[in-house]
């Protein structure tokens, strides 16, 4: 089933995408299998090598393994719909952005308007390195940001961005029926004409 699901979910070969890009998708079914410390270190190192404005590297990652306190604190912030499928996920990761540039000399810290963009770039690196190791990820916006901030005493100078599930693909048969249908259906994407322009809302001719 896992192999068939992977084939179904991969981007069509005729698009000519890099293999890692084609293989990345966001499952909700995860196997009860641990991600090794070595693989996790490689994945997070890849995140740290993302591009960032002024090389600020504003990302912070809170990493929780199932059965540990950090995992529970992240899990508790998830909306019920996400908690319903996350129970077998071995790793939960919260991403946070520092909102200011590191001061230079005696200057005051200046706002970094690109911090969340850069955390997104680091998260993309994380996902692609993970899939190269056969490990899947699923980003979530369905969580309580303020509860997560409170659970970890995150200072006001940081913005909570997202929560990520990470682990090996499992069987969709264990999912609630609604999610099982989503898990076993083919993926689609908007055509380039809807988001690639030469002038606003004027599709580029590619």
Mean pLDDT: 95
General shape: globular
Series of secondary-structure elements, N-terminal to C-terminal: HHHEHHEHEHEHEE
Helicity, in percent? 25-40%
Q: Taking strands numbered 1, 2, ... along the chain, how are they ordered across the largest sheet? A: 1-2-4-3
Which stretches are poorly predicted, pLDDT < 50 over at least 5 residues?
Answer: none
Number of E strands = 6
End-to-end gap: 37 Å
Number of helices: 8
Topology of this protein?
Elements: H1 2-9, H2 19-23, H3 37-48, E1 59-65, H4 69-75, H5 80-86, E2 91-98, H6 115-132, E3 136-140, H7 145-152, E4 158-167, H8 177-183, E5 197-199, E6 202-203
Antiparallel strand pairs: 1-2, 2-4, 3-4, 5-6
Q: Concise description?
A:
This protein is of the alpha+beta class and 206 residues long.
Describe the protein in words.
This protein is an alpha+beta fold and 206 residues long. Helix content is 35%, strand content 17%. Helix 3 (37-48) packs antiparallel against helix 6 (115-132).
